[in-house]
TrEMBL record:
Any matching Pfam family: Apiosidase
Highest taxon listed in the record's lineage: Bacteria
Domain Putative collagen-binding: start-end pairs: 364-455
Residue ranges constituting the Apiosidase-like catalytic domain according to the UniProt record: 32-361
Protein name: DUF4038 domain-containing protein
InterPro entries noted in UniProt: Apiosidase-like_cat_dom, Collagen-bd_put, GH
Amino acid sequence: MRLFACLLVLTVLTKDVPAQSLFGHGRLQVTKNGRYLQFADGTPFFWLGDTGWELFHRLTLPEIKQYLENRAAKGFSVIQAVALAEFDGLRKPNQYGEVPLKNLDPTQPNEKYFKVVDSAIHMARQRNLFIGLLPTWGDKVTKMWGEGPVVFDSINAYTYGKWLGTRYKKEPNIIWILGGDRPAVNSENDWRPVWRAMARGIKEATNKQCFITYHPAGGENSTSQWIHKEDWLDMNMFQSGHGGGHDVAAWDLTKRDWTYAPAKPTLDGEPNYEDHPVNPWPKWNPDNGYYRDYDVRKQTYRSVFAGACGVTYGHHAMWQFMSAREATINYPDRGWISALDRPGAYQVGFLRRLIESRPMLARIPDNSIVVKGQGDKGEHIEAFRAEDNSHAMIYLPIGKTITIKTTALPKRMTAWWFNPKDATSQQATTGEIKELMEFTSPTLGKENDWVLVIDDATKNYKAPGK
């Protein structure tokens, strides 16, 4: 009866939502230059993710609908969610009383549990959202910390991967994400054979019509150090995380991934979450405070401008779907409903809109544009230009005066100041075009971050923003 009620609710939720056109462009793939993402017909794709890790485990179907509609309206394009969830996800049932596996056995998935996963995937597709589907959280392969238990080996990982791949092979809005906050290998253990087997199962079941990446633990290691040359890995990912304090150099991690061959896209799959306590391990000092929307903007803009194919946002209450039903984890300062409309969630949508306002698949990171005013850590500036020099963008985390070199910029220039807080823009004074030019942001100092957008005046680009 509970499953019947679940499916009845799903019918009510989705019957009036028309299918949309995003997935009519073909499957997601890597661009020819190996740096960015597009659909099969060449339509560009910007990965703007949200970490809805416990989506299938902790929410009802009406709550899933509420969350997905909110994220779609803000411009998100990927929801990262876990089939075998982190928080006792094998033994604690979902909101319909179902656990994902029978007898903790990956070769015995529970059909009733996966019906909820099916429903969430379908609701996401109707709202032009990919589900970045983690088959399992990493503690089911690599204990290290967390609930576990470890249930996977190379044999049943293949079986489970093939079962999942078969189930979802016709769904156009699946991005496969292996891992789950764990390394693929360390000095003592090598778990790559397990992940390799799971990926093989997915690829065989989908006839290789799949896109696969891997979500690692936080720190300096990216997937590029462990599994870059694995033929199943389509995209690298790193996690600049929450424990390194403000202004972890996510831009350097992006640029390091650019040095590996063959070229593969990369992105920060988990930068500091909005409203997450700063450095809460092993014990949080409340004087450290929380990461807020300014921290989110600095990290997301700088990794994207450094060459990432997108970025993932997260909110500390949202990833765990904190509510009165659940125990709190690491001092959230609000519940997930209250977190839906936090400023950072809107502002990352402005970032996507800005990048998509100009041709986006031939971006080249180029900090040589800035010859004076470049800072480090909280003041570090990131810049990129178009391959054909038709436009450039420079992110200033602190309002200031900078000097730029124009030799690789348009000869006829229009310049704009774009405000990442509210997506408004104003024209910048350019004056006579010289080899070195000064620009001063409209406001100065910390929390007055700006983007200087420089366009070829002959292209007739519209002002970026609203």
